[in-house]
Structures are given as structure tokens and as C-alpha cells.
Amino acid sequence: METELLSAAQEIDFSLWALFARATLTVKLVMIMLIVASFWSWAIIVQKIIAYRNSRAEAAVFDRAFWSGEPLDELFDKIGATPSGASQKVFAAGMTEWRRNLRQDGGFIAGAQSRIDRSMDVAIAKESEKLTSGLNFLATVGSTAPFVGLFGTVMGIMNAFIEIAAQQNTNLAVVAPGIAEALLATGLGLLAAIPAVIFYNKLSSDSDRIIASYEAFADEFATILSRELDS
Known about the structure:
By secondary structure, the chain is mainly alpha-helical. The protein is built from 8 helices and no strands.
């Protein structure tokens, strides 16, 4: 009898596709949702890694140009009022407001410093929003995917018990497929959640450092402009 049960269990296809195909509609929807979430998470992760690398490279190039000793007006005229790089946008925002507050007699309109600071803060806020966009999705996947997978597991196990009751048979060939399908949902939940959590923490830290570098540059630039305003 035991040999027959083992033989019957061995004939069952336990490949991932077979487990998915045998699952109920609810469990299938859970699996599809988790697979889509996983692919979307990886798309965000790859895009952010590339974007952050480009941001750091652009900031390094601009930093060298800014501290090269070239007059700020000439540097601003070179990059234009609508540059593509984030560091250049912060610089352009400050220089644009600087020129707007410059009177014809060479003096400055009262409150110029605060307006210049606010314009750079707005530019930094816009770049910060771009850098952090998509990270909330990673956080959501990381926190909810295990529970979504657990829901699929519960539904799969419930279906397995219903099958056992319907066939009035508890042998391995009846029990194993349903349990395996249920556990696959949990596995997919963890597969989606673990990378999302790891890269959310890493990318959040990276974005904080990049934004901090923009803020540090804005402070240094504001200090330089304040000397000009006070002179």
C-alpha cells in the first residue's frame, strides 16, 4: 500500500508551471499579482540605480566646473537657464533669481538673499521628488507581499482540505499537490518582498546622500552670493 502511494505521488508533476496551473482561480490571481509586483519592483530598482549613478556623476562634473575659478556669470551663461543636470538646476535657480533681483544701478532689491535661498530650495525639492519617486512602491511591496502570499497559502490549504473531504482520502497523492500549490504562493510573496525591502533601504539611503549633497552645495552657493550682496 505504501509503495502504491509513493508511486502515485511520484507521478504528480510538481514543476512551478504545473503547480500554478492546478491552483484555484483565487490562488492564481494572488500569484500573478506577486509576480507582477516583483517585476515592477526590479524595474524600479534598476532604473533608480542607473539614475543615482548618473546623478552622482553629473554632480561631480559640475562641482569641478563650479570650483574651477570660472566666473559664475560665465558658467551660468554656458549651461543656460534650463540645464538638464540636477546640480546645474539648483545653480541655475539661484543665478536666475540673483539676476532678477539685480537693479540697474548695480544694487540689489531688498530681500534678495531669502528669495535666492527659496528658489534653490524649490529646485532641490523638485529633484528630491524625482529621486524618491517609486520608492514608496518598494516599501509597499516589501511590507504587504508576504501577507498577500500568506493569503494565497491559506486559500490553497483550504482548497486542499476541501479536496480531501470531497474524495474522503488523505493519501499523499491527494494532499501533496494542494499543499505545494499553497506554499508556492508564500514563496512568491517572499520572493517579491525580500529584494524590495533590501533595495528600498539602500536606495533611500543613497537618495538621502544625494539630496544632502544638493543642500550642501546650495548652502555654499548661498554663502558666496551673500558676500556679493553684502559687498
